[in-house]
Task: inverse folding
């Protein structure tokens, strides 16, 4: 009887890890150069969203503050999304096109 309880616990753990693995394998990371205009940014309840490639990406405030619409409109953007969650995602990296990663 004791052996069967451990087998059930191990089976549950294995199934849980498989589920997490399947979900995480659907994460997609995209990096590219995009032109950002004011029309590409939507504000909703104090949160910013960037519309790129027919996706609505969460744009953290610190990245939003880096965007200078008057001087630059080309940015190197890295974002991730999960195909299981309606193709919505989050911007995880943003810098002006040509800017070096270590500073201006």
Result:
């Amino acid at each position: 009887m004791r052996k069967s309880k451990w087998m059930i616990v191990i089976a549950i753990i294995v199934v849980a890890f498989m589920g997490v693995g399947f979900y995480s394998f659907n994460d997609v990371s995209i990096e590219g150069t995009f032109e950002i205009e004011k029309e590409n940014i939507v504000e909703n309840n104090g949160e910013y969203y960037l519309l790129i490639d027919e996706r609505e990406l969460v744009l953290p405030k610190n990245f939003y503050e880096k965007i200078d619409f008057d001087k630059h409109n080309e940015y190197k953007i890295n974002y991730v999304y999960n195909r299981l969650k309606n193709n919505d995602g989050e911007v995880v990296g943003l810098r002006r096109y040509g800017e070096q990663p270590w500073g201006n």
